[in-house]
Amino acid sequence: MPATKPDFMNAHALGILEFPRLLAHVAGRASSAPGAAAVRSLVPRVDREWIEAEHARVNAVRSLILSDLGWPTEPIPELGEPLKRLRIEGLTWTALELLQGAMLLRSSRRMRDALRDPRRPSITLAFLAAYAQGLVDLRAQEEAITRAISEDGTVRDDASPTLRRVRKELRQTEGELVRLLEREMGKLESHHQVSDLSVTMRNGRWVIPMRREAKGYVGGIVHDSSGTGATIFVEPPAAVEFGNRVRELELEEQREVERVLRALTEQLHPYHDAIVGAFDALVALDSLYARARYSLEANCGALTFGEPSNGMAIVDGRHPLLLAKGTTVVPFDLALAPDERTLLVSGPNTGGKTVLLKAIGLLCMMAQAGVPAPVGATSCLPVFDDVFADVGDEQSIEASLSTFSAHLKNLGEILRSATANALVLIDELGSGTDPAEGAALGGSILETLTRRGTLTLSTTHLGQLKLLATEVPGVVNASLQFDAVQLAPTYRLLKGVPGRSYGLSIARRLQLSEEVIARAEERLPHGERDMAVLLADVEAREAALTTREQLMDREQEKMRSRVATVTDRELKVRERERDAERVARQEARKYLLEARGQVERAIADVRARAAEQSVAFDEAARAARRSVEEAAAVQGQAVEAVEQRAAKERARVTQKQQGRPTDTTPATAQRTPGVAPARVAPLAEGDTVLVSTLGDKVGRIVSVRGNDVRVVVGSLTVTVPLASLSRTKAAPPPAFKLTLSGDMVEVEPVREVDVRGMRVDEMDDLVLQALDAAVRNDLRELRIIHGKGTGALRARVGEMLKKDTRVTGFRLGAWNEGGAGVTVAELS
Predict the structure, then answer these.
(1) Do 105 and 178 belong to one domain?
(2) Are 376 and 446 in a shared domain?
(3) Which of 58, 131, 175, 385 has its CA 20 to 30 A from that of 217?
(4) Are 302 and 328 contacting, i.e. CB atoms less than 8 angstroms apart?
């Protein structure tokens, strides 16, 4: 597994950026204390290969968290020091340390199995393969510790036969000793007894309490006394020998416990290196888990990394520590081209310049430490070799440094150490001294860093520095937008536009004397006034453009909403039309089928009275059935056509909403070539037909039910689709008659039916078939296995059994029949 490099970044700059505070926030997402400590120990690195690999590992854990199986969080005990001692031959772990060792082995085994689970994506697990290889499966040692030590950290009686014997004898001896002491206590005179009259233990010996004046009557050994001295705790002479035996057994118990602990430790000693490796792997995985959770909470996008010479691109950047507070954070976008090396941010106080400076530095450093940064997915951050920061007031009384001197000390260090691959953050450049001299010095420093190629971000209030962008190639102005009317910051970053200080505007807002403000404006140099007017005009144009863009966005959103509403209404209207047609067709089919039943009853009645005219009557009956069945078939096909049109309409609307071209080909032109449309053949009972599904065998129709037809082919009776039949004049082969006597029984009677895993609407046929088979086989009971689950299947089974006249009663299964997961139906 990769080892962590030492901290190479400028510790002073990381402290200013509050990098340790950020790591502590991310560490709070770990599931264990060792994992949290590993997060807090992270440092920015310059190894781009390690950085990209670490982010890939974090993304892999993030994918597993979001998967159906989730992330297998396992407890990790704090075993750093005990693992170091395990290396020493002959050293024994305590019972609690052994119990934690078993926890470590169990977590290692479970995590190892989870990372090898074939149900998890192999591509994702490949990023974690190095850690999976470090995990061990020492089940034998884990189970040995679990058998010997209870969850409260005590060695069990069953840890060894000797320990079981010793503890049994110890309990017996202590019981006899307590009974003896109770007898002795009962012999005390009432004036020698105390209120709390019970056998107790003092200094490892069983004793009885009594008043001090009773000592001369009882004798024995005094082991303790009360705070007032009025009560003493005495071991009577008769109990001394029993007490000595108890002490001997306790020592023997202690020796046996130490032997058991030593034996268990010796089982772990040969695997010291493997256990340490498993501990390190679990800690590293928990560290990745904490960072992945933070990535999800902060909605961090996937980053790409480049060279500092190629600039940077931050999309939807947010300050991590402001996010941690739960406050509303205004995101910013920043793109620096390769030839743009210095960004000079200006604007009024409280506008967010320092926060922006720290946010950019912190985003870069956390990304280089393997922590996801709260930026958009298209962001690209450089990999810096170091970071330098001069932010805030660092004056020191002890070092005799003023604010300006402290700034100069930091700037001198930056000029000496910053390379072309470094990141430099400077706040309020040129402040703390005469503005003219501060601007001159600040301009010289920025020019030096820019020509060196160092990526520099600086804030300033000095107007002269804002002109640097027109004098030094590579310097770019920027500002944070300020609402000139409300005199409040909006925190929107504007690149290429310097910011105004708004000092006189704020003074006028605070109702400073208008005469004083007018004189101040007169004292401004002409260049400053012209610059202020120009910036005000630029800001006004920017505000107008922003307002226009927002209006256009709102209009587009309204248009999209209207289109969606109209489309939805159109779909609902057509759906209602189809529903009405479908219901009408189904009702018509229902009435026709009912009419078929009435026709059959009329035919039976007439047949009974006019048997002599059977030939003509049969032909008339067939014609009547044929007419009803053809009408029912037409209505059934009409219902199917409605369903097909509904499906096509839904697909067309979906394509329209997605912006795809809709298929306007007529329905008649969309049929698959070579497939003929469904044919409604005027076939009825008694007709001779060819059955295509049986190789064009000749058969005779027995009955027609909609699109299903029962046909006799030889001695075989089958149900086939209507479309598979065609009329023929060939005579059907003679049917073989088979005479059966008695009831037909199943070869093996079905005594139970299993409907687990089915939907409620899928189980009806299976239960009814099982009931039919049970009745045919003269069974008295039928077990219906539906499982416990949500209870939906059990409820549906109850409804069916209540309605079935063949069922005399039903009940839930007994404990040996499946309990609440089985319903037993009692048949008549």
Answers:
(1) no
(2) yes
(3) 175
(4) no
Closest to 797 measured CA to CA, from 755, 757, 826: 755
Q: Are residue 315 and residue 463 in the same domain, yes or no? A: yes
**Taking Cα atoms as reference points, which of 281, 409, 426 lies closest to residue 346?**
426
798 is in an annotated binding site: no
Number of Cα atoms under 13 Å in the Cβ half of residue 521: 14
CATH number of the domain bearing residue 18 = 1.10.1420.10
Q: Which residue has the tokens 């993304």?
A: 59
The torsion angle over the Cα atoms of residues 454, 460, 462 and 464, rounded to 10 degrees, is 30
pLDDT per position as a tens digit, 584-602: 767 766 666 666 666 666 6
Strand-pair category, 312-317 with 205-211: unpaired
List residues bridging with 476 in a β-sheet: 343
Give, as one character, the DSSP assignment of residue 43. -
Q: Look up residue 218 and give its amino acid.
A: V
Is 348 labeled as ligand-binding? yes
Look up residue 797 and give its two tokens.
């089974």
- DSSP 8-state assignment for residue 396: B
Q: Virtual CA dihedral for 630, 636, 638, 640, nearest 10 degrees? A: -140
Across the chain, which has 828 residues, the per-10-residue mean pLDDT values are: 51 91 94 94 93 94 90 90 88 92 94 89 84 92 93 90 92 88 81 80 86 77 82 85 87 93 92 94 95 94 91 92 86 91 80 85 94 93 93 49 72 90 89 77 90 91 77 86 53 68 57 65 56 54 68 79 77 76 70 66 64 56 60 60 66 59 43 41 78 78 80 73 80 52 50 83 82 82 86 87 87 82 88
Sequence-distant (≥ 6) Cβ neighbours of residue 40 within 8 angstroms: 20, 23, 24, 27
Please return the burial class of 674, using the count of CB atoms within 10 Å of its CB with bins 0-12, 13-18 and 19+: exposed
**Does the annotation list 351 as a binding residue?**
yes
Claim to verify: residue 626 and residue 697 sit in the same structural domain: no
- Confirm whether 202 is domain-assigned: yes
506, 523, 540: which is the final residue of a domain? Answer: 523
Beta bridge partners of 754: 785
Look at the chain and count its residues: 828
Q: Minimal CA–CA distance to 360: which of 480, 268, 232, 456?
A: 456
Same domain flag for 308 and 334: yes
Give CA separation, 25 vs 58, 249, 300, 354, in Å: 17, 53, 15, 21
Cα–Cα distance between 424 and 457 in angstroms, integer? 6
pLDDT digits (tens, 9 = 90+) for 785-818: 888 878 888 888 888 888 888 888 898 888 777 8
Amino acid at site 210: M
CA 719 from chain centre, in angstroms, equals 51
Are residues 495 and 374 part of one domain?
yes
Q: At what angle do helices 272-297 and 95-115 cross, to 10 degrees?
A: 60
**What type of residue sits at position 28?**
G
Q: Determine the residue type at 10.
A: N
> Is 197 in the same domain as 310?
no
Q: Residue 88: which domain range?
A: 11-157+266-297
Q: Is residue 145 in a domain?
A: yes
d(CA 423, CA 556): 41
Residue 114 placed within a domain:
yes
C-alpha to C-alpha distance for 352 and 313, rounded to whole angstroms? 20
- Residue 350 annotated as part of some ligand binding site: yes
Helix (H) or strand (E) holding 325, with range, is: helix 320-325
Count how many domains the chain has. 6
Task: Tell me the CA distances in angstroms from 609 to 596, 604, 613, 614, 615, one per residue in order.
Answer: 20, 9, 9, 10, 14
Cα–Cα distance between 511 and 501 in angstroms, integer?
Answer: 17
| Cα–Cα distance, 691 to 15 (Å, whole number) | 88
Residue 690 CA: distances (Å) to CA of 517, 709, 730: 108, 12, 9
**Per-residue DSSP letter, 303:** P
Q: Which two tokens stand for residue 381?
A: 């951050």
Tokens of 516: 């004083």
In a domain, 541, yes or no: no
Q: What are the E-state strand segments in 182-331?
A: 200-202, 205-211, 221-225, 231-235, 304-306, 312-317
